[in-house]
Amino acid sequence: MDKWVNSHWFARIAALLLAVMMWTVVNVEGESPTSTESAPPLLIDSVNLHVKYDTDRYYVAKMPRTVQLALETNNPFYKHNLVPQDSREVYVDLMDKGKGTHRVPVQYKGFPDDVKVGIIPSIVEVTLEEKKTVEREVTVELLGQVAPGYKAGEPLVKPFRVLVRVPESQADRVAAVKAPVDLEGATSPIKTTVPLKVMDKSGNTLQGAEVIPLTAEIQVPVTSPYVQVPIKLNLTNELPDGYSLASVDTNVDEVTVYGPKEVIDAMKTETYPGPEVDLSDITSDRVIERKMPVLENIVKVEPDYLKISLKVVPSATKRLEKIPIRISGLAETMEARVMSAEGQEISTLDVDTVGAPSILEKLRPEDVQVMVDVSNMPAGVYEVPVTYIFNQPDYVKPAKNLITKVTVEITKK
Fold first, then answer.
1. Among 122, 215, 349, 411, whose Cα sits 20 to 30 Å from the Cα of 80?
2. Which regions span the lipid bilayer (predicted)?
3. Residue 382's Cα: distance from chain center in Å?
4. Sign (positive or negative) of CA dihedral 360, 362, 365, 366
């Protein structure tokens, strides 16, 4: 019986009968000489039905969403349906009701006194279900792809556990709480606040679920391509006379360099220049901290700072005898002779070296090269600079008394 009373067809038939009854009553009264002509009832369909209830404890599981109104009035605004919907309210009051299904009368307010209001149906069933709170972890849902060559790290979410309030019958359907984050094209770390979504076991959004809190803060590290390469120390100038470097140590031997893929790929076989250290005024042991330079097209370098330990000692001198003179750059059709200041041909030089005693002790003749470069020189006699190359750069240097130029005679074979 209740099912039939609440059916759509019953509502329409009842509305029609109510309208006919109202019209009959008005017209019967109109036979009196003192009455005025009354308009037929105005029917308004699909009027939203509101529910007043304890929203903190309950959830409306079932109710009719709309009702029908039959209005009897001579007011032209109602006659032509010109009154805005927000000026009226049709509702049921369940503030004193608990969970379960309740049959309650439909009430109204906001209508003028000269309007007779009929509501179809006048009594409705509303089911209240008690809310239940469950706790779930927040899962970060990474969407899209970072820029080519970049990599997304493990996301950090705060809070990592939240409360979910749902109707008691749906508590077991709460499978996950997700925080979606868009990574598309990202080239730097992401920090954002996103709304949380409650998902069921099928991966669909669970409608009507309340999340406390509504949002979460997400941080996703995004790193560029990187490579680890050795550091090349950038020691400039020389220690003051009488002092030499015994050792140079750094807190790390390699640095991690981040940047675009094409830059990093080209750097895999290179060294990375360290910060500049000027030796010109250092006469004792030092520990120097310098910020690592960031080259063009490089995103960052780790570590940010480099510690350089310098051990400085009084200089010593060691002579390496009969070091061969090497001639470079000579054309295949030419031959060359190196001449002494006295005009005699020479093929070796004695080399006095200056450095820390501990390093000079291990220095051998094969650790030194004496070079004379005659590239692009035709036949003739030339004065050419002499270059001394040591196997331990920045630690050993030639003495100031060494020959700096020699005479080279170039002739055709």
1. 122
2. none
3. 64
4. negative
How far, in Å, CA of 356 to CA of 105, rounded? 104
Give the Cα separation of 378 and 376 in Å (integer).
Answer: 7
Q: Both tokens of residue 384?
A: 């050419």
Q: Classify residue 15 by its DSSP letter.
A: H
The stretch 337-363 carries a mean pLDDT of 91
How distant is the alpha carbon of residue 96 from its chain centre? Answer: 50
DSSP collapsed to 3 states, 81-138: CCCCHHHCEEEEECCCCCCEEEEEECEEECCCCCCEEEEECCEEEEEEEEEEEEEEEE
Average pLDDT over residues 47-64: 91
The pLDDT tens digits of the residues spanning 140-183 come to: 999 999 988 788 999 999 999 999 998 888 888 999 999 999 99
Q: Which contiguous run of DSSP H or E holds residue 371?
A: strand 368-373
CA separation for the pair 362, 321 (Å, rounded): 15
Tokens of 25: 């009553």
Q: Looking up tokens 């949380």, which residue turns up?
A: 196
Q: pLDDT averaged over the chain?
A: 86
Question: Is the pLDDT at 15 greater than 60, yes or no?
Answer: no
CA distances to 57, 66, 74, 124, 145 from 102, rounded to whole Å, are 16, 17, 36, 8, 52
User: What was the pLDDT predicted at 79?
Assistant: 56
- Residues in a beta bridge with 349: 323
The pLDDT tens digits for 387-411 are: 999 887 668 989 999 999 999 999 9
Neighbouring residues of 16: CB distance < 8 A, sequence distance ≥ 6: none
Distance CA 99, CA 53 (A): 10
CA distance 108 to 333: 115
Q: For the chain, what is the total number of helices (H) and then of strands (E)?
A: 5, 33
* Beta carbons of 190 and 183 less than 8 angstroms apart: yes
Q: Distance (Å, rounded) from C-alpha 17 to C-alpha 161?
A: 57
| Portion of the chain with pLDDT greater than 90, in percent | 59
